[in-house]
Write a structure and sequence with these properties.
By secondary structure, the chain is mainly alpha-helical. The protein has one domain. The chain has helices at about 30-35, 45, 70-85, and strands at about 1-5, 10. It has a two-stranded antiparallel ribbon with strand order 1-2.
Length: about 90
């Protein structure tokens, strides 16, 4: 299944037993633009790597201080983490 950034299904495999391949166009430029535009869509920064043995580096530590739990505080943290990683 290929799904766009808004959750719309763009292409899906036929139902039935066994494996299937799905083919469809992917506009990388649009994906990059949406990742820049949408503040909370930085999946690698939200990765909880401590849950996976091969990914030990933490990118987005949980339980922020109360002043960081505001929308502006979270926006600031997300922006800061994106800048650190070149997003």
């Amino acid at each position: 299944m290929i799904v766009d950034m808004d959750g719309r299904v763009l292409s899906r495999a036929a139902e039935g037993p066994g494996q299937a391949s799905v083919i469809g166009p992917i506009a990388l430029g649009v994906i990059r633009e949406e990742r820049q535009r949408r503040q909370g869509h930085a999946m690698p920064l939200h990765l909880r790597s401590e849950a996976y043995p091969l990914q030990r580096e933490s990118h987005f530590p949980g339980n922020p201080h109360p002043e960081q739990r505001t929308i502006s505080g979270l926006d600031k943290r997300i922006r800061s983490e994106k800048e650190k990683r070149g997003w």
